[in-house]
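Running this now, will post back.
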Amino acid sequence: MCMSMRTNENNNSSFIINPSLKIDHVHLRVSNLKESLAFYQSILGFRILKDKSTSSTAFLAASSSSSVAIGNINTTLSLENKEKVSPSLVLTEIDKNNDDNTRFKNIKKEAGLFHFAILLPERKFLAAFLRHIQENLDQTFYEGMADHAVSESIYIHDLDYNGIEVYRYSNCF
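Update: finished.
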């Protein structure tokens, strides 16, 4: 499975990405690393693999296990089962003193990355994700849904308008 739902002591559901997620990695530029980390952890269930308070870059993975660094920034070792976990998502905060900031603020209007996609294994997981974002995500981040005949998709964006598609293949194959 690629995701699961769990309930905390306050009966609030949270979304967790399963370690079987299949992406090499996505590297995004963000305007505020702290706020973006909160978004990707609370809405999509990513976990921080490596983050230094002095760094402008954070490495996240679809892993709910505790991890420790083992020598380089691209691989960590799970404490529970000693398997290597590579980051699925890298967030780099833009230099706020750079003149390029004006261009970055207008990024939604420019050509570039349309979105990245996260595949879920079954329709029930897509339904659980929809319920999760309805309860936990401000509507301004919601872009829409689509039934493409071969897949069903939910489209959202992050704080910097990086598009995210969460989808599942239909059983028409």
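The first helix runs from residue 33 to 42. More later if anyone needs it.
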